[in-house]
Amino acid sequence: MSGISEVSKQEVSHLEKTVGDSSDSVKFDESDRKLGVDIDEGFDPAEVKRVVRKVDWRLIPMLILMYAISLIDRTNLSVARTANENRFDKDLGTDGNNNRYSIITVVFFVPYIIFELPSQFGLRAFGARIWLGTAVVLWGAVMLGMGFAQNWYTLAALRAILGMFESALFPGAAFLIQCWYPRKELAFRNVIFYITSSLGSSFAKLIGFGFSHLDGRGGMAGWQWMFILYGILTIFIGLLAYVFLVDVPTKGNFLTEREREIVMTRIERDRADSVPDPLTWPKILAYCCELKSWFIAFAFMSTTMSAYALAYFMPRILTIMGFNNVESMLLGTPAYFYAIIPAVVCGRIADRIPHMRGNMILFNAVCIIVGTAMYSQLPSNQRAARFVGIFIATGGGNSNIPLILAWQAVSIRAQSKRAFCSALTVAFGGIGGILGSTLFFNKEAKQGYPTGVFTIIGLNVATIFGTLAMMAWMHMKNKKAKRGECVIEGAEGFYYQI
Predict the structure, then answer these.
(1) Rounded to whole angstroms, how far apart are CA atoms 492 and 482?
(2) Mean of the pLDDT values across residues 15-35?
(3) Alpha carbon distance 159, 104 (integer Å)
(4) Is 170 helix (H, G, I), strand (E, B) or coil?
């Protein structure tokens, strides 16, 4: 799994002594670039804690709000159909045994995958506030337009455009979080960002069900009102991003010079990449040669397939278990509350015991396998046990998504590489979305969706074996680096956190 490092020793030595703008700059001495030292040395612990909390409250809540509405807008199709099934199918022509609903679902992910990497160039060119805020406003307008769709192919086309605009947010958010925090703080922040967004989006089923009761108002169906109202809400959140979203630390104007010095010095001491470096095609080609990035992307795909399958089909799965439509809408939310527990616990362990990162991913992959098997394969008269399986699978999937992102982040250096790897990983997450939305065939519903279920199980078994291989390889590389036989990620003193 040896790869081509993007930052040579010469590049490291040429990091600028001064970063930021001319009026508010941060200076480093050589000791700040020496990896392996205490990142908080020389700073008052209370002051560091205060600065970290200031960054937390300014960065994370806005990203949570934006990603929550992103998850809502991409998955509320199932809510619209379940709440007004007869009206939805009749209006759009998705009734019968055709695959039109599956097409509407899957077309979102094609541009979502294609535009992941190009979106990172836009992020670097325009900055997070303008680029991501505009993306949210634009896809909100698309959501609004979906409320006026007259047929299934119009809705499918709008879903494709939705995927193009949404492709900017998740890799952009993951990149921003990675740029602001040292490695020992990344997993927990990723967990808070993702799990809170998922929890917020789970309420969309309840809110969307409420919107559906506007059926008939103004001569419009309930599913139309749901898209229109969510579109208005999305545009509002995008406008908030123009005001409150922050960019990379070098542009962190909400901090004082002293506070920015603390943030960037900690990053320099942790991994020496606080200063942005350009994302170029030669670097992209070099990054593409690193197998560890591809494996992490594969593991992310395996996890997101499970998460998307439950997001799109949980109401149907619960209906098959014997719950009515209203119960199936309500009973999907508690599993996301439960997911907070394993996600937070695993995130804390991964950050505080760095060599437990891989083990936490293994644990949650096992949970996905066990939970998926329980909700799909147990006899129909064991409804309670099948319902518990949904909790276990939801907890495993929603825990592993931020943990895998964090493992990717702590295993690399350089902001250009973070931009590339974030886009690659999230793009594979889109492939997981395609698999999760297409392999759960309606004709197999009564049999427990065997094609989709066994694909999830098989992919996560592969993730387990791949993670074990990755951990062994990282351990070997760390031993060689400590003996002076190699340099990891182009920086002496940098070691993998296993």
Answers:
(1) 9
(2) 48
(3) 7
(4) helix
